[in-house]
Amino acid sequence: MAQSLEPELYNWIAVRAYQLVVPVVFIYLIFMLKKKGVRFFYDRNQAVKTDSEKSLISWSITVWTIVMLYMTDGYVNQAILDADMDYLVRRRLFYFTKMCFLTAFMICIYTLHRLRNISFSQSTRVVLYSSTCNITMFFAQFILRGYLENDILLAAYRQVSAIHYIVCCLAILYLPLRLFIADVKLRKRDY
After folding, report:
1. Which residues are listed as membrane-spanning (predicted)?
2. 3-class DSSP assignment, residue 37
3. How many structural domains comprise the chain?
4. At what angle do helices 154-190 and 122-146 cross, to 10 degrees?
5. Considering the domain boundaries, does residue 46 fall inside one?
6. Do the beta carbons of residue 22 and residue 66 sit within 8 Å?
C-alpha cells in the first residue's frame, strides 16, 4: 500500500512558514530593541513595571533563542545528512542531535528567564510545551528508526513536526500582531 504524501506536504508547508515567520519576527524584534533600548530587554537591574512589559521581555528571549536554533540547526542537520557514513549511524546521529539541540534550546530559554528574573509568557509556555512533544517524538524516532529500523511512526513524526512548526509560528507571531493591532486602533482614535 502506498504511503500518503499528505504528512510530507503538511511538514513542507509548516517548515516553509517557519522559515518565513522567524526572519520577519526577528526584524520586528530588532525594531523593538531600537525603540525601547537593549537595556530594557536584557538588563536585570532595569525595573519591569507591567505584565505587558514582562510578556514582551519573555517573548524577546524566546525569539532570540528560536533564531539561534534556526541559524544552527539547519546547517548541522544538512551536514549530517550529507555525511558519508552508514545510514543507520547517520539516522542515529541525526535524531540524537535534534534532541540535543531542542533540549539546549529549552534550557537556554529557562536560564535566560531566570537570569532576567521574569516568568514565562503565554507564548513562551506554548513553545516549550510544543518543543517537549517534539523531543519525545525525536526520541521515539531515534529508537525506532536508528536501532530497530522501523518506520511505524514516520507519518506521526511528520505530523507532530508540522504541528510544532505551526504552533511556534503562531506563538511568536501572537505578541507582535497584538501590539500592531493595538497601535492601529490607537492611531484611529487619534484621528
Report:
1. 12-33, 54-72, 92-112, 124-143, 163-181
2. coil
3. 1
4. 160
5. no
6. yes
